[in-house]
Amino acid sequence: MIAELLVSLFILVGAFFGLTGSMGLARLPDFYTRLHGPTKATTLGVGGVLIASILHFSLMGPALSLRELLIALFLFLTAPVSAHVLAKAGVRRGIASRAPLPDELKKKSAEG
Amino acid sequence: MIPVAVTIALAAFSIAFVLSLWRLVRGPDAIDRVLALDTLYINAIAIIVLLGLAQGTTVYFEAALLIAALGFVGTVALAKYLGRGSVIE
């Protein structure tokens, strides 16, 4: 009973953050703000679903199930890296930002 | 209780999937589309894991792991190509 409640809670929290992240991707005004939604909120949402899955298959299955941990670890390691690479590519392409760019970045994006 | 939660979560992640598809179509820049693809594969992983939860099997996790690995490599390669003009220097 408590296990079911816990699993449901993690699933719902994960779904909330996943939806929030994608809404951020769809609605925020420029590329650099849009970068926040998917790379932070959606990753946390998937993390919640994966924790729910670990709990479900460990508590109701025959043995400890840690394969989801591998997926979660991989996602949590790669999400910041891909966000960084995407932001760098955006700066190099000279994408307009709502906030003023720092001077050194302005110089770099002018060079190409 | 768990089936209800899984249904709600599947609906939420399906809406999230459609929202990132919308950003993929809308753009405006190519790098926005890469970001949309990144979100798309993360949502796909969530949907696959939820399907595994709903059906009570663990056979889908290898697929989720594969999507996670290949999606990351694809995002980095596309971002490097768009930012520098070449993937490997």
From TrEMBL, chain B:
<protein>
    <submittedName>
        <fullName>K+/H+ antiporter subunit F</fullName>
    </submittedName>
</protein>
<dbReference type="GO" id="GO:0005886">
    <property type="term" value="C:plasma membrane"/>
</dbReference>
<keyword id="KW-0812">Transmembrane</keyword>
<keyword id="KW-0406">Ion transport</keyword>
<keyword id="KW-1133">Transmembrane helix</keyword>
<feature type="transmembrane region" description="Helical">
    <location>
        <begin position="6"/>
        <end position="25"/>
    </location>
</feature>
<comment type="similarity">
    <text>Belongs to the CPA3 antiporters (TC 2.A.63) subunit F family.</text>
</comment>
<dbReference type="InterPro" id="IPR007208">
    <property type="entry name" value="MrpF/PhaF-like"/>
</dbReference>
<keyword id="KW-0472">Membrane</keyword>
<keyword id="KW-0050">Antiport</keyword>
<keyword id="KW-0813">Transport</keyword>
<dbReference type="Pfam" id="PF04066">
    <property type="entry name" value="MrpF_PhaF"/>
</dbReference>
<keyword id="KW-1003">Cell membrane</keyword>
<feature type="transmembrane region" description="Helical">
    <location>
        <begin position="34"/>
        <end position="54"/>
    </location>
</feature>
<dbReference type="GO" id="GO:0015385">
    <property type="term" value="F:sodium:proton antiporter activity"/>
</dbReference>
<feature type="transmembrane region" description="Helical">
    <location>
        <begin position="60"/>
        <end position="83"/>
    </location>
</feature>
